[in-house]
Amino acid sequence: xxxxxxxxxxxxxxxxxxxxxxxxxxxxxxxxxxxxxxxxxxxxxxxxxxxxxxxxxxxxxxxxxxxxxxxxxxxxxxxxxxxxxxxxxxxxxxxxxxxxxxxxxxxxxxxxxxxxxxxxxxxxxxxxxxxxxxxxxxxxxxxxxxxxxxxxxxxxxxxxxxxxxxxxxxxxxxxxxxxxxxxxxxxxxxxxxxxxxxxxxxxxxxxxxxxxxxxxxxxxxxxxxxxxxxxxxxxxxxxxxxxxxxxxxxxxxxxxxxxxxxxxxxxxxxxxxxxxxxxxxxxxxxxxxxxxxxxxxxxxxxxxxxxxxxxxxxxxxxxxxxxxxxxxxxxxxxxxxxxxxxxxxxxxxxxxxxxxxxxxxxxxxxxxxxxxxxxxxxxxxxxxxxxxxxxxxxxxxxxxxxxxxxxxxxxxxxxxxxxxxxxxxxxxxxxxxxxxxxxxxxxxxxxxxxxxxxxxxxxxxxxxxxxxxxxxxxxxxxxxxxxxxxxxxxxxxxxxxxxxxxxxxxxxxxxxxxxxxxxxxxxxxxxxxxxxxxxxxxxxxxxxxxxxxxxxxxxxxxxxxxxxxxxxxxxxxxxxxxxxxxxxxxxxxxxxxxxxxxxxxxxxxxxxxxxxxxxxxxxxxxxxxxxxxxxxxxxxxxxxxxxxxxxxxxxxxxxxxxxxxxxxxxxxxxxxxxxxxxxxxxxxxxxxxxxxxxxxxxxxxxxxxxxxxxxxxxxxxxxxxxxxxxxxxxxxxxxxxxxxxxxxxxxxxxxxxxxxxxxxxxxxxxxxxxxxxxxxxxxxxxxxxxxxxxxxxxxxxxxxxxxxxxxxxxxxxxxxxxxxxxxxxxxxxxxxxxxxxxxxxxxxxxxxxxxxxxxxxxxxxxxxxxxxxxxxxxxxxxxxxxxxxxxxxxxxxxxxxxxxxxxxxxxxxxxxxxxxxxxxxxxxxxxxxxxxxxxxxxxxxxxxxxxxxxxxxxxxx
Length: 957
Fold this sequence. Notes:
The protein is α+β, with helices and mostly antiparallel strands. Among the domains are: about 240-385, no CATH class; about 605-610 and about 625-655 and about 665-775, no CATH class; about 775-955, no CATH class. The strands form seven sheets. Strands 16-2-1-17-18-20-19 form a seven-stranded mixed sheet, with helices on both faces. Strands 3, 4, 11, 12 and 15 form a five-stranded antiparallel sheet that branches. The model is unreliable at about 655-665 and about 855-870 (pLDDT under 50). This is DNA methylase. GO terms for molecular function: methyltransferase activity. One of its GO terms (biological process) is methylation. It comes from Candidatus Accumulibacter aalborgensis. Keywords: Methyltransferase, Transferase.
């Protein structure tokens, strides 16, 4: 029996819900536990599990309606999730019926702005449960009861959900929260700690959570009293510092003073504060001046006036013509390697460190109310004395704290993609080198006080995770952010790298409380008993699960073992005390990474083991985020060799237009590939597979088109392309071999550069079928008459008219149509601003005679469209290109169609009459482009196309 997720999935609504969850930042349920890369949205996990448990009936529309009701993603459910019905929203009205109609008129993504997330409400209403139970034959009144009953029906017991790459814990946590028995494992102890915390802290119940919050609050209070007693954050004016700004400085050869380094000396855009540097008489250093500037000066500083680092070169602040290469300053032998005892640079080191600004805070009473006053100031002699005291206090405790594990003692592993830059760019060799003395002192204080206060394992883990979060927000790798309203130190892992900055921030203890405390409040959520966690290599698993949901590492997209070591350095000895059965090491040598033969063998071994450890009617879901056909082919062959067959694939976009899109040409969706065991092992033959793939691609696309919601498409072009790949996998993976070729031999075969496997060839052909199947609306009658490059251009215009601007999408389209060079057709190839040329934009470029045409058009420009030397671009000789030139001629003649009509008659001779009706259809389609949002560039050309279409329609021999 097929399940709901194998027949349909509410892509649009899940995408909007996923984006809302991700946009919540620290408001996400698991994010406060600590940083992990690629955590999947909890709503996606919930939907996936329920979609695999819910059977599909013969009534697809009713199935969809019920599924949305279960998730409170139907119209009634979304209305029930309103935070404040009718208050402060654009559809507010005294009449509640009018308010509801106004609310329903909004797009789904717009409605979510005013709603709680599904996880934050009890679930469907009693009325909804009656309808759900009537359709499914259940008697549930909660998600837990529904999961139990569906599991009993399918597997004979409460369903067990497993994840062998549990990472940040989304899958085991959400599985347990909705009533499944959950299992998670990961080789990396940092991932294990996060997952354990999700189940046993967030899922530990109110009593556990209140104890954790009490311990963390007491630890902060103890550390605060000590810092106040030392006097290292307070000045004589009664102010307390909350931020310290440092920079690297260097004294290049030929320069008689140290140059402080920063790509910008703007400190606060909203505060209008900048740093200036002043020569000091008879000294080899510069003095900082912290000043509030005018709007005009602020604008210059925003444009990086006075920057002393630009394009990897040091710039003299008093003579911009004098520059030095940063790489050359490091010297041919590289930088001195720091020793464990080094806490600050030694006097002879190339790169020195200096404090150049402090932000002071004082609370005053104004109009009977407390008000916080902030000011930025350059450090004075007393501030520098406090810095020296911080270093002295740290040195007194350094050895003891390293031995106890309150601060890191581990060396940074050699030869890592991320860690190598730490040696090369700063000479750092130990993880504690990534932190200033002030950071190590305050973090160590909290480590010491929390270790003394934490009695339970839960409190111990919470304090460790708190230290990890502090490390992520308070390190030498924390750049200072100065944009409007956001003047603070940034997260170390704002991306997936260990970035060494020339200027950086340290947070005072007074600004670390919210970072250290991992729980904001207590809840009754108690799911820990439903979850089991092990730290293990996925190849060694022995657990059996009914459903496996995994998000595997792939092609070193994230170097988990290296980045995780940043946190593990802080957990280290304390982790071993809390979990003596764990290995407190990332075991990089065992990590599944790369994209070569070893990686493929490991992946086949893992997924074969997962297939063996699930029942015959069990399912797997592999979450995947790649759009390269070669990578898809690789993954498909791995799963094929593991004895699995694909039954469905769905793409959930985690960035939506309605709520905003992050910048950058990157994959924006997660493909959820649904798999079952391949019980039979029938042989397959390529000559039979190709037509089956074509049928499956067309069937898949037809079903997706039929599921589009009114005014709210479920799918974009990326979804259709990925669906084509998945359709090919569905056909291919049902066979035990292909043309007699052994599966494992194909997976591990060594191929020449650019040589494609049969698997990849089939998948790429599937993309071509998809591209050819998706005909732009209005071009059905003329599509078959067009060449591939003409189809590409029109499809590219079609997706542009629907708001698609990602360069990768235009490149994927080109691959599907077999167009090898799209650069001459693109007006802009920006990552998120790709646009196609208009007829006026192309003008006479990229234009060549139609081969064999009876052309006597003597007035053609000399630029006949050869793209450099050699043969013309295939678009240059296409009828569509000449039609576009005719549009340009029409527009240039003040919309008189005669020059355009004459050009076409001269160019095509007698062939013109056979093409005239097709030209009219194309012109009418192009004439409509200007009506699409964001297509203003087409206004003039679309009008010319409309006028020329009318003239051609009435043309006679």
